[in-house]
Design brief:
Elements: H1 2-18, H2 26-55, H3 60-81, H4 87-108, E1 110-112, E2 115-121, E3 124-126, H5 128-146, H6 154-174, H7 178-194, H8 199-203, H9 206-219, H10 221-231, H11 242-254, H12 279-312, H13 316-340, H14 358-376, H15 379-382
Antiparallel strand pairs: 1-2, 2-3
Length: 383
């Protein structure tokens, strides 16, 4: 009995040694912190005029972003210190809580600009769809890992997992959040594919998805307006395409070197809410092509680091979580940049770690903490 106890203690000490703080991927951590620092600076620069006009305090959004950044970093430190395997036990409860929040927001949520996406709790607001993205990642990782023998089948594999993702997507869509709905389904497709799902099965859903997306766009006049304005943005420069045209002006006037930090003209009440989804345009105006390129390269570095962590993960569960988390970040960044540059229709997708937004920032940093914990337990460290 004592021999078993001593053996158990030795294994416990080895596990603790294996997941020491020094074993995290510091490259990923540094990349995220640099991105976060740039985001805080650019939120202040882009929001000062708007905040002064709307809130009579030029520091309003800057101070709130710093507070949320601190909360997010604390959350990242917590998730970084928790063994990611414990989420296997927590995931069912997280799924139930997320579904409850997505339902509650439909009845108790705050309606802003025609969409009901936020639950207000006193001075704070919470966006359940931001939580849903990462809970879906944990849930799919758990199911795919447990049902390894089912992934290559059509009904029990691809169809089953897409159905799980669709259950999240439908509730998010009910709050008129098509952009996050699309992201949720795209992340699910990525996870199913890397989990071993057949490409032919996934491709068979492309026509169905395209028809559904087209119908959803046609169903809401404002979505149809965004799509038609994307096809010809110069047809209505002061109406449907106003925000996109202001983005073009910002990016074009920035040139290669930019006008200088704080010197944007478009943020002076020309660009609607410049600190949110179109903050990349202000970055282009103030920091130029060089600044935009640096941001893109930084995201590429973070994605490469995330994929590297996934490849080195100790088990398939860690691999799937890593791919899911980095897919959420990568897809959002790609969509945001594409929207700002006029490469796809305007949609409300913030740039991760840079756009203003407390819920998004906190959950993104919390998810990075999980990724860092997976990096602690990589195959290389487990030798």
């Amino acid at each position: 009995m004592n021999t078993v106890s001593r053996g158990s203690k030795r294994r416990h000490r080895k596990l603790k040694k294996r997941i020491k703080m020094k074993d995290i991927d510091y490259g990923l951590l540094c990349g995220i912190l640099i991105l976060l620092f740039i985001g805080i600076i650019m939120v202040y620069s882009s929001s000062s005029y708007y905040a002064l006009y709307e809130k009579e305090n030029s520091d309003f959004f800057f101070i709130k972003e710093i507070v949320w950044a601190i909360v997010g970093i604390c959350g990242m430190l917590v998730t970084m210190s928790i063994d990611y395997h414990i989420y296997k036990k927590w995931t069912p409860y997280l799924v139930m809580g997320t579904f409850l929040a997505l339902v509650l927001v439909l009845f108790l949520g705050v309606n802003l600009n025609g969409a009901t996406r936020w639950i207000r709790i006193g001075p704070l607001s919470f966006q359940p769809s931001e939580l849903a993205k990462y809970v879906l990642v944990l849930y799919l990782a758990l199911l795919i890992d447990r049902r390894k023998d089912k992934i290559k089948k059509f009904k029990e594999g691809t169809l089953f997992y897409l159905g799980i993702a669709a259950s999240f997507a439908v509730l998010i869509l009910a709050g008129k959040n098509l952009s996050i709905t699309v992201i949720v389904m795209m992340v699910a497709v990525v996870m199913i594919f890397v989990g071993g799902g057949k490409l032919s099965h996934l491709l068979s859903f492309v026509p169905i998805g395209a028809v559904i997306l087209g119908f959803l766009i046609y169903l809401q006049p404002y979505r149809l307006d965004r799509f038609t304005s994307f096809l010809d943005p110069w047809a209505d420069t002061s109406g449907k395409s106003y925000q996109l045209i202001q983005s073009f002006y910002a990016l074009g006037s920035g040139g290669i070197l930019g006008s200088g930090l704080g010197n944007s003209r478009q943020k002076a009440l020309f660009m609607p809410e410049p600190h949110n989804d179109f903050i990349f345009a202000i970055i282009g105006e103030e920091l130029g092509l060089i600044g935009c390129t640096f941001i893109v390269l930084l995201f590429m570095f973070i994605v490469i680091k995330g994929v590297s962590i996934a490849i080195k993960a100790r088990d398939n569960y860690g691999f799937l979580i890593s791919i899911g988390i980095i897919s959420v970040i990568a897809i959002q960044a790609i969509i945001n940049i594409a929207v700002v540059t006029g490469s796809m229709p305007v949609t409300g997708v913030p740039m991760p770690f840079i756009s203003y937004g407390g819920t998004s920032l906190v959950f993104n940093l919390g998810a990075i903490g999980i990724l860092l914990n997976i990096s602690r337990q990589s195959k290389e460290e487990a030798k």
